[in-house]
Amino acid sequence: MCGIVGAISTRNVVPMLLEGLSRLEYRGYDSSGIAVINSSATACELERVRVAGRVADLAKKAAQTSGFTGIAHTRWATHGAPTEANAHPHLGGSKVMVVHNGIIENFAELKAELIECGYAFSSDTDTEVIAHLIDYELNKTPDFLSGVQASIQLLKGAFAIGVLSSLHPHQVICARQGSPLVIGQGFQESFFASDIAALLPLTQKMIYLEEGDIALLDGQAIQIWNKQGEVVHRQVRMLDVCSDSAELGPYRHYMQKEIFEQPLALANTINPALHEGFNPALFGSTAEQIFNQATAIRIIACGSSYHAGLVARYWIEAYTGMPVSVDIASEYRYSQGREQAGTLIIAISQSGETADLLAAIRNAKERGQVSTLALCNVPHSTLTREADLTLLTQAGIEIGVASTKAFTTQLAALYLFAGSLACARKTLTADQLAELANWLPRLPAMISGVLSLETYIEAWSQSLSHFEHTLYLGRNTLYPIALEGALKLKEIAYIHAEGYAAGELKHGPLALVDENMPIIVCAANDGLFEKLMSNLREVEARGGQIYLIAEPGCEAALPYVKSAVFLPLNTGPLAPIVFTIPLQLLAYHTAHRKGTDVDKPRNLAKSVTVE
Question: Cα(171)–Cα(9) distance, rounded to whole angstroms?
Fold first, then answer.
């Protein structure tokens, strides 16, 4: 969740570190800081600048700071309030600086031991324990690497760290255990960060550290040791990612930009199927065998990805007849049963580094003979490296904390999976598969058509922004989309919103309905429309204010609604993807009208790398 950047160079690294932090702001944070080995001092000295505020505030405060070696950090508070004293980097003794992402579970015991050794603590964080611990070890050994290695052997929990020492001004060390870290390789300079986005302006040569790795960077070389202390060589990967993709351009917010990038993101995701149709080979060379041997499907995810999994359940069961369960990753580990042999676990994650999800997948492997399929937006992430099969969602960099194009590309990938599974298991005829596949080429144009309705959706936000509570309703595959729409409004507009299956309205939520309760309804022109009409009448009779998003052919609902927006075309089985767009626009414009921080909503982070 926190953002880490480190650099060693023959030029001043402060501008690089600040630029890297600015590109990690999407992760969510409440304080920021930077530390360098001061290049202007006659003796090597550590210089630190911290603020309980934004990176822009840090940049102003660090305007006179310079150095050839440095680390920087944006903090999302876990231990201690968001104050300058708790901001990273943290000083250990007088000669060590540390930045850290993750949680040290045994920090209290280590802190007590260090206090007995004479160390004084100036923060409430678990990170300061790491800094003092490394200082303690360096008092016993002159070797920088050995001191850090000895220290991290004592840590329990998850961490990615960057370490400076005034005793070793031409070196910087980074290490990871349970939290992601990537190294960037430049010309006579090296970098590391918790996300490639921070490094894209500097280099496209990346090295992904494996679990337990520790690396020493001196600008000329990158040396890596594994958790056993053995020297290892990790592959240098050239990324075909443009740093401009992280630029805002003409849009007011990244979220707005990313909503409008969805036609292209979806086209890129479905492109392989446009040439090959539904094909298990899209998911890996062994996919067809795994698909045919699968006895059940279990989908595990968090947040918006969980909603995508709920949609997929309808598709998979309809097209294959296979039993599908959908679990929240953080809850999965609390169940006690063994996994049925042959279960295919589908893990859905934008980042591929979500701590709860990774823990759940590892737990699933301990419970039985399962195979794993990762649907992820980040190549070479921990999730994709650990899975048996992978499909990348091709959403590109997503900066806004509230997921938009990452979510719809996950839906598209799951639609490809459902069709490919049916193809492998021959549960649909060739004509039925062709009919489902024929919807795919229309998808980008359908999304563009819905985006053209933005002004109508924006008009709704004027009314919605004055309410404190909202209900979202949908049936069948649009029920999870109602959940997703409600989540978006909560995330960025700070309006309490709940999504419900429309048939559940009379089983409790109807008690909330009055003239102060707006109801957002998604209506597909299908066999369930008449049932949905009954729900609309129930709401209208109690004074509820209905805002209807509907396909053509649903005009019979107009007498019961306050306002309606009709999609340009019927959307068939892809309705969940298409209906998502107006709900995203509604949340965005409502939040913008309320003046909230749309891209960086309070208390939230993009990549949740702690449990």
Answer: 10
Is 174 one of the annotated active-site residues of the chain? Answer: no
User: Per-residue b/e over 236-271, b at no fewer than 16 CB within 10 Å?
Assistant: eeebebebeebeeeeeebbbbbbbbbbbbbbbbbbe
In the predicted model, is pLDDT for residue 39 greater than 90? no
Q: What is the CA radius of gyration of the chain?
A: 26
**Tokens 């396909």 found at:** 551
Strands (E), 406-544: 469-474, 496-501, 518-523
**Token reading at 49:** 């600048």
Number of H helices, E strands in the chain: 19, 25
Please, are residues 389 and 363 in contact by the beta-carbon 8 Å criterion?
no
In the block, residue with structure tokens 């993009």? 606
Q: What is the pTM of this model?
A: 0.80
Write phi, then psi, for 68 (nearest 5 degrees): -95, -15
Q: Could you tell me which residues come within 8 angstroms of residue 511 by beta carbon, excluding any fewer than 6 positions away?
A: none
Told to judge if 227 belongs to the known catalytic residues of this protein, a careful annotator would answer no
Closest among 276, 193, 197, 270 to 239, alpha carbons compared: 197
Q: How many CA atoms lie within 13 A of 346 on its CB side?
A: 31
- Sheet with 296-301, side-by-side order of all strands: 324-328, 296-301, 343-349, 371-376, 389-392
Helix axes 575-594, 478-493, angle to 10 degrees: 20
Name the active-site residue from 2, 174, 376, 522.
Answer: 2
Among residues 405, 488, 490, 606, which one is catalytic?
Answer: 606
Q: What is the pLDDT of residues 304-319, one digit of tens each?
A: 999 999 999 999 999 9
Q: What is the pLDDT of residues 458-489, one digit of tens each?
A: 999 999 999 999 999 999 999 999 999 999 99
